[in-house]
Write a structure and sequence with these properties.
The complex is a heterodimer of chains A (704) and B (69). Chain A is mainly alpha-helical and 704 residues long. Helix content of chain A is 64%, strand content 5%. Chain A has three domains: 421 residues, Sodium/glucose cotransporter (Up-down Bundle); 134 residues, no CATH class; 94 residues, Barwin-like endoglucanases, CATH 2.40.40. Chain B has one domain. Chain B is elongated. The chains are: A mainly alpha (704), B mainly alpha (69).
């Protein structure tokens, strides 16, 4: 298809380049706040809700949002906002399930949770899925960026006598280098603070395009009247067309996507882990979903809505070569003057950098915690109980960031065949989310869920998903709610429902049958040929998984569906037997504090002693330095009383300037009291970590 | 415009999603993950219920506006 080129002016380019350089410098400035991996990945767990909420906006409104929702807004109207207004259903699970568990269990990554809750093998499988999920997300981000900037570029340009042709992949590589540099040096604090700026830029740019568009067609009344009634509907047609329907979006986005976003997106989880406590994390989540997401729906879809109204008013307005994914950029060029257009494109660049930076930081965290350290323990280069070598871990984190930036660019090729970014993203969610979603969900909320259930979910579930991909008419169509079959990309959305069903089934059955499994495994262990039986099962399972991959991904027509389904189900049963045979699992110790049923216990572990849940007040104090190196803060007796605190309680202390959002703050423990009211004695490490300024008062509050 | 374009997607979204939401609310109460003795948690309980109806009302209003305004 013919490509639009060179639609920007020189001023636009100057604005874009200045913006990119400013963000680069801004991000790297925050490198000074990275003392260790805790700062690099979690920003020191210190920020207040509004910083977290605003930075989530920039991550949530990623670059693909502007492109894909404007495309869908142009084609289908207000229903492009569906994905932004359907996330509330899982908020109770998140606020009072997953969020307190990840904070109080002090895990540093999602795979680490799986090792503690299940087994090292579970951690290994989840690490692979998590890395695939994150790298795929990075790939979509880069693809969008390329598609958005390409129309601005000339077909080719000459430097030092060499003619360079501008290609989509070439552009993506350049963007990747810029993004990689700033996250590699800046870390999580850089991500959070640049997101704050970028979040504002994004909202401004989106509203600017929408406002200019409404004014262009003659005001709100004209805009409303120009749009056909079907374009004004907030939800798409129930089950058609194949590329966009509400039942499909419900299963793919409201269910799989929402859980993916809240529970599996390590980048987002790390934002919540950077909040000063669970309560602030809940506030950030609530404000984000209740207010920021609906606003964001207008920001990202508005370009497409006004484009539709403008086209109804003037059918010859847009060039015939415009593709849906280019609508936002093209309409912005028509509406905005030189320079302003550059600002809008800079906002898209901001969106990409925010999203990709978050995801790259998360992949680095997973690599350091779930690949590098376990391998070093396995190779006996370090011991489990030894503290992390921070200098080495930081180096590995930065190398991993560079490596995953490159892998993210390579992942672009997997999504390039989809007609729109929206469909590419839907395919990605529907395919990668269900096994992890079921694993996390059952892990948190179902105490009886066993390693056998989990590993069967991942291996058996993915194999059954592969069969669904190969035989959509036989397996997905019966539950597709009448959505049309499209041969090139069959049931992009409804495959999410099929995938959820098969993953749930293979999770539930082994868990409910764990007593029978135990008896069977005991019987096999007593047989002299027990090991041979297990080897047979492992070989059989490996062969079946390989066959499912060959059939589904490489399109080999080796066996008919009924035989494939039978052997895959037998393989799933074998996987649960193999897991029960080899994995040691103590249900009592491996669920305490790690499921929703024992959150109180998790809190006690977090604190290290009995909880004090009396509600106290916040106090203002001045600080003095104590000359010992205890990890505690010493308040006066009266101040401790005001906080309803006791010696040993956890305390959070921060600069009183609220606009700093907790940047200058730290956590510690209340030590033995003194008599000087309004004074807190702190140690050098608190002053350094908290970045406290001399003579600036501080606010202290008891945490628990 | 027919039922498939207007109210069926709305009903499916809030009945289907409502089942998951209700399950979550029951679960957090049953597991005592939300402690109704604490003022903070009482606030969150109300906020969660508010959120569900807030989004349902936004969608209902928008459908009504598209059809009749």
């Amino acid at each position: 298809m013919e490509q639009l080129t060179n639609i920007g002016s020189q001023i636009d380019w100057i604005v874009l380049v200045i913006y990119m350089i400013t963000m680069l410098l801004f991000g790297t400035y925050f490198a000074k706040y990275n003392n260790d991996t805790n700062d690099f990945f979690f920003g020191g767990r210190r920020f207040t809700w509004w910083i977290i909420a605003m930075s989530i906006v920039a991550t949530g409104i990623s670059s693909h949002s502007f492109v894909k929702y404007s495309a869908m807004g142009f084609k289908y109207g207000f229903s492009s906002s569906m994905s932004y207004i359907n996330d509330w259903f899982f908020v109770p699970f998140f606020m009072f399930g997953w969020l307190p568990i990840i904070v109080y269990s002090k895990i540093r990554s999602i795979p680490e949770y799986f090792e503690r809750r299940f087994s090292p093998s579970a951690r290994f499988l989840v690490t692979i899925l998590q890395l695939l999920y994150l790298v795929g997300y990075v790939g979509i981000g880069f693809l969008t960026m390329g598609k958005a900037i390409l129309p601005l570029m000339p077909e080719s340009f000459t430097i030092l006598g060499f003619e360079i042709h501008v290609t989509l992949m070439g552009l993506i590589w350049v963007t990747a280098v810029i993004t990689g540099v700033y996250i590699t040096f800046g870390g999580q604090t850089a991500v959070i603070f640049t997101d704050l700026v970028q979040g504002v830029m994004l909202l401004l740019a989106g509203f600017l395009v929408f406002g200019l568009g409404v004014a262009y067609v003659g005001g709100w009344g004209s805009f409303w009247d120009l749009l056909p009634m079907s374009w004004k509907m907030p939800l798409a047609n129930f089950n058609s067309p194949a590329e966009f329907n509400s039942v499909g979006v419900f299963w793919e986005d409201a269910i799989a996507g929402s859980v993916g976003f809240l529970f599996m997106n390590m980048g987002l989880i790390m934002r919540f882990m950077a909040a000063k406590n669970v309560h602030e994390g809940r506030k950030a989540a609530a404000i984000n979903i209740l207010f920021m997401l609906p606003v964001s729906a207008i920001v990202v879809g508005g370009g497409g809505w006004v484009a539709k109204a403008m086209l109804v008013q003037n059918p010859s307005l847009l060039p015939a070569t415009v593709q849906a994914d280019q609508i936002f950029v093209v309409i912005s060029r028509i509406l905005a003057g030189p320079g302003v257009f550059g600002f809008i494109i800079a906002a898209i660049a901001a969106a990409l950098m925010s999203t990709v930076a978050t995801l790259l930081n998360a992949t680095a965290a997973i690599w350091v915690n779930d690949v590098d350290r376990p391998i070093r323990i396995w190779l006996k280069k370090t011991k489990k109980e030894e503290p992390v070598d921070e200098k080495r871990a930081m180096l590995i984190a930065r190398i991993a960031t560079v490596a995953f930036t490159i892998l993210g660019v390579l992942a672009v090729y997997a999504f390039a065949s989809y007609p729109t970014i929206y469909q590419a993203h839907a395919f990605f969610h529907a395919t990668l989310t269900p096994p992890l979603m079921i694993a996390i969900f059952f892990g948190i909320f179902w105490k009886k869920f066993t390693p056998a259930g989990l590993i069967t979910t991942v291996i058996g579930g993915i194999s059954l998903m592969l069969l669904g991909h190969k035989f959509p008419l036989e397996l997905i169509a019966p539950i597709a709610h009448g959505t049309p079959y499209e041969a090139a990309h069959p049931f992009t959305y409804m495959s999410a429902l099929y995938n959820l069903i098969v993953c749930s089934a293979v999770a539930v059955i082994p868990t409910l049958m764990q007593n029978q499994l135990k008896k069977l495994v005991k019987g096999i262990k007593n047989l002299s040929s027990g090991q041979s039986i297990m080897i047979f099962m492992i070989v059989f399972s490996t062969v079946v998984v390989m066959i499912d991959i060959l059939v589904s991904i490489f399109d080999f027509n080796i066996l008919p569906l009924n035989i494939l389904m039978t052997v895959t189900l037998i393989m799933a049963a074998f996987v649960s037997i193999i897991t029960s045979f080899y994995v040691k699992y103590d249900a009592e110790s491996q669920t305490t504090g790690l499921t929703i049923w024992s959150i109180h216990k998790a809190k006690e572990w977090f604190k290290g002693r009995k909880l004090n849940e009396r509600e106290g007040e916040k106090i203002i104090v001045n600080w003095k330095e104590a000359d010992d190196d205890k990890d505690e803060l010493s308040f006066s007796k009266n101040d401790i009383k005001k906080m309803s605190a006791e010696v040993g309680d956890l305390v959070y202390i921060s600069d009183t300037r609220k606009w700093m959002g907790g940047l200058k703050s730290c956590h510690s423990v209340i030590g033995e009291p003194h008599e000087e009211e309004g004074i807190v004695y702190m140690r050098k490490k608190h002053i350094t970590n908290g970045l406290f300024v001399k003579f600036k008062p501080l606010e202290a509050e008891k945490e628990m | 415009m027919n039922f498939f374009n207007t109210w069926l997607p709305f009903i499916y979204l809030y009945v289907g999603g409502g089942i998951f939401f209700l399950a979550g609310m029951i679960l957090i109460r049953k597991a005592k993950s939300i402690d109704m003795r604490l003022k903070q948690d009482q606030f969150w309980w109300k906020a969660l219920i508010f959120g569900f109806f807030y989004f349902a009302l936004i969608h209902a209003f928008l459908i009504f506006a598209a059809l009749y305004l």
